[in-house]
Design goal:
Length: 409
């Protein structure tokens, strides 16, 4: 059934607390510094990408509220200090320096754009401060240093989830992607994995477009002129909306398989409403149809607090702070060296199940929902889907050794 949103769920708070609240054992007995907070510096593109970051902050706030309600971690409560990174690597580094030097945060988290995430990753390396990259997807985030870990599934994992369903159905592919780190990384991973699965595949056109400035008519026409059997799309946000509408008007998608990253996420599906694509193969977040007890508890708590339904960014923000709390508890303090050690192999409970940070590359096993899109009652949704645990979508240890220098561990 398609979602019926935004309906507030008035019952089930007791069940949500049973799952979502950290065990009181996490909180140590009161001590002399029990009144001190653990300050976590959060960097995100709050103005540029409010469609996602608003919901990320809500998820973070819900997690912090639940953690603090049972005494915090090590007898100290969590405090989030937010800064806008401007969607710009240079501005992000300046904001990170301010958080560390002026605000005296204990660690960093956040970022959504991959080029910004990479800049903060480099900052963390040089300043030797722990950084949990919550949402940037480029594979390069985890190439890199002892102090950086990543929560969301990488572009490699997204491609690995889609390729088995896309391979062998089509030989001639058109590629459409935003021309910055995320789009380039996603396309590179998809091409590499598809070539492995289908050696005779052909890539007949690549349309690399400026982020936020797509000429959708020209792109749609170029794709159609190349006469592909299938289309791989990495555009998101307003660029995606423009491509969908121009492509439908010109009949570009008719009779062609369309494989599309992130399109099933409500941040990008919901604004399209009745213009949402039909039968695209996508990654997404069908919050309205996930029936596990863990997710129902999260959904109940989120809707009770915000009178709204969660987006994928809500889940990412929530999980980021649950992971941070679990990591601090394991480390015994907020020292970056001890946090870096503690996060290797760290497992925490998420609304989607247990998630583990791999020791070999600092990538979490945050999973993916993969399925087909449809429209009903004027709304786009994922009509069918499966959840793939992130542990099944990771590069091999041999590949990790090629990409990641030994000293990064």
């Amino acid at each position: 059934m398609p979602p019926d949103w935004p309906r507030t769920r008035k019952n089930g708070m007791r069940k949500s607390l049973a799952f979502l609240a950290f065990s009181a054992a996490l909180a140590a007995p009161a001590s002399a510094d029990a009144q001190n907070t653990i300050k976590i510096g959060d960097l995100n593109s709050y103005a540029l990408m409010s469609i996602s970051t608003t919901h990320y902050k809500r998820g973070a706030d819900l997690a912090i509220e639940q953690i603090n309600a049972v005494g915090g971690v090590l007898g100290r409560k969590l405090e989030i200090v937010t800064r806008d990174d401007g969607g710009n690597p240079g501005e992000a580094v300046r904001a990170a320096e301010g958080l560390v030097s002026s605000d005296k945060v204990d660690m960093l988290t956040g970022t959504i754009l991959s080029n910004v995430g990479l800049a903060v990753t480099d900052f963390a390396k040089h300043r030797k401060i722990f950084f949990l990259a919550s949402a940037p997807l480029t594979d390069k985030i985890v190439y890199g240093n002892r102090y950086t870990f990543r929560l969301r599934a990488s572009t490699y994992s997204h491609a690995a989830a889609l390729v088995p369903l896309a391979a062998n159905s089509s030989k001639r592919w058109a590629l459409v992607y935003p021309n910055f780190e995320y789009g380039q990384s996603a396309t590179e991973s998809f091409k590499r994995l598809l070539k492995q699965a289908q050696p005779d595949v052909q890539f007949v056109t690549e349309q690399a477009v400026p982020l936020g400035k797509v000429d959708a008519g020209a792109v749609a026409q170029a794709v159609d002129d190349a006469k592909p059997d299938a289309i791989f799309n990495v555009l998101f946000g307003s660029d995606l909306a423009k491509l969908v509408r121009e492509g439908e008007t010109r009949g570009v998608f008719k009779g062609r398989e369309v494989v599309s990253l992130l399109t099933g996420e409500p941040e990008y599906m919901d604004p399209l409403r009745s213009d949402a694509p039909v039968n695209w193969l996508v990654t997404g977040y069908p919050w309205y149809a996930i029936q596990t007890p863990e997710h129902k508890a999260f959904l109940d708590a989120y809707q009770k607090k915000f009178n709204d339904y969660p987006r994928i960014a809500s889940l990412v923000g929530y999980d980021a702070f649950k992971a941070i709390a679990a990591g601090i508890a394991k480390a015994g303090n907020t020292d970056s060296e001890k946090l870096a050690d503690a996060f290797k192999g760290l497992t925490f409970d998420s609304p989607t199940g247990k998630v583990t940070f791999r020791a070999q590359d600092h990538q979490s096993t945050f999973g993916l929902y993969v399925g087909r899109t449809d429209v009903k009652d004027g709304k786009g949704y994922m009509k069918s889907f499966e959840y793939i645990d992130g542990s099944k979508l990771q590069p091999s240890d041999a590949e990790v050794k090629q990409w990641r220098p030994a000293q990064a561990n």
